[in-house]
Amino acid sequence: MASSSFSAAASAATATISSSHRHQSLLLTKPFTHNSVLFKQPITLTTAPSLRPLKLRASSSSSVAPLDKTAAAVAAAPPPFPDFDFNAYMLTKAALVNAALDQSIPLARPLKIHEAMRYSLLAGGKRVRPVLCLAACEMVGGDQSLALPMACATEMVHTMSLIHDDLPCMDDDDLRRGLPTSHKKYGEDTAILAGDALLSLSFEHVAARTPSTVSPDRVVRAIAELGSAVGSAGLVAGQIVDIASEGDVDVTLEVSAHINKYINK
Amino acid sequence: MASSSFSAAASAATATISSSHRHQSLLLTKPFTHNSVLFKQPITLTTAPSLRPLKLRASSSSSVAPLDKTAAAVAAAPPPFPDFDFNAYMLTKAALVNAALDQSIPLARPLKIHEAMRYSLLAGGKRVRPVLCLAACEMVGGDQSLALPMACATEMVHTMSLIHDDLPCMDDDDLRRGLPTSHKKYGEDTAILAGDALLSLSFEHVAARTPSTVSPDRVVRAIAELGSAVGSAGLVAGQIVDIASEGDVDVTLEVSAHINKYINK
């Protein structure tokens, strides 16, 4: 149970990393059980910046034929989250994540790089990615402590991407969450290095901090998946697409068309 | 044997990453056996850019008291490498590493980022770090195939550090190994992203490509060690020291004093 819930969390986490910053939904295509109900249809978990309620809904354009028994069981079951308070859930989990992130980078020497890493990592935010990671773990019956290092890793990667994306040669932003961007506060050189250190720490954190009750082979697979989600076929590919599309008035919000257009250049 | 030799290789690899670019020596403090001789004293493997012969020598300032029997065995044994051709060894291993690096990044879409990654990674170099990794594996009786993914990872990390170090806000170099630096050829944005993708790939490569004969718990530990060697207490700390020391005429080649001086700021 520990290992399978960790794998679900890792998959959810890497799904959030490789998706767009605006694309805060998660498609689960593998069967899973929740509240004793077996879900066999593709399920989409959707969130938005406004923190609207989490919805569990079957895809209307499912490519998996529903089984009559499963459909009947789903129809007969009570609503999956009758008393679910999404806002409270998000805030509680975000507080847990914030505490873990705070502990993940002590203010050690050399001071400047650790200050810069902590400055950006602890500057706030809804912590959507790590909370989705914890939620995926809990959804399949796991204890959130199993997924907490991976949850923190997703936020470290996200923060790295923001620091580097804010640089003058990228989006050239002066402010992030109402505060000076990393390079405005610490200089471009330190900002780049803070991003590098956060990216490195994300992998180290999963490897060194995941509880030993998770089998090491699953940790290895999760690290491979994290790397794939971050690298040249994942997050970095998305950034390259952003650069390629700059100034292009034909770009629409249709992310798939957008990516197809530029990735296939 | 597979796992212990992998661990030795991983330790050697991370030792080369966290050391200075100029500091191409490796201190082995744990006992090991070579050519049926048990080495219990600290041993230093030293290389230099001029490819002078590899030396295996006991430390004169050993903090480990030699055992009489071991000392006698060492004295009676033949020279450890009577016919060792260091240059041929380096060239053979470098060719193996180059072939593996070439395969590690296919020229996939999006083309620009993969071109940039391959441009810097395959631009040449002595491959000292990966060869030391393979040598450490072989020294303790392992097959080099066990350590090859970690060896490649060290070169990916090294290349990332060079790309980011060459940027205008860092050392502002136009040439690297006789060719335009990454940002001169592809632009600063793509250069930063190519470094990010290489760093991410280094961890993914170890996780996904290390042979299954190496136990996953050792792979997890090696990834944690790699992260530690790269991050804010390793390679990035060294870069921060370089930035802090810029223009300081008091900086000497005494690396330890240098690091102590700046890391303790």
What does this 3D model show about the protein?
The structure is a homodimer of 265-residue chains. The radius of gyration of chain A is 19 Å and the shape is globular. Chain A is mainly α. Chain A has helices at residues 2-18, 68-76, 86-104, 111-121, 128-139, 144-165, 182-186, 188-209, 216-230, 235-245, 255-263; strands spanning 25-28, 32-34, 37-39, 43-46, 55-58, 175-176, 179-180. In chain A, a hairpin with an 8-residue loop joins β4 and β5. The interface between A and B is large, with 57 and 57 residues.
What is this structure's SSE topology?
The structure is a homodimer of 265-residue chains.
Chain A: H1 2-18, E1 25-28, E2 32-34, E3 37-39, E4 43-46, E5 55-58, H2 68-76, H3 86-104, H4 111-121, H5 128-139, H6 144-165, E6 175-176, E7 179-180, H7 182-186, H8 188-209, H9 216-230, H10 235-245, H11 255-263
Antiparallel strand pairs in A: 1-4, 2-3, 4-5, 6-7
Helix pairs in contact in A: 1-5, 1-6, 1-9, 3-5, 3-6, 4-8, 5-6, 6-8, 10-11
Question: Quick summary of this structure?
Answer:
The structure is a homodimer of 265-residue chains. With 265 residues, chain A is mainly α.
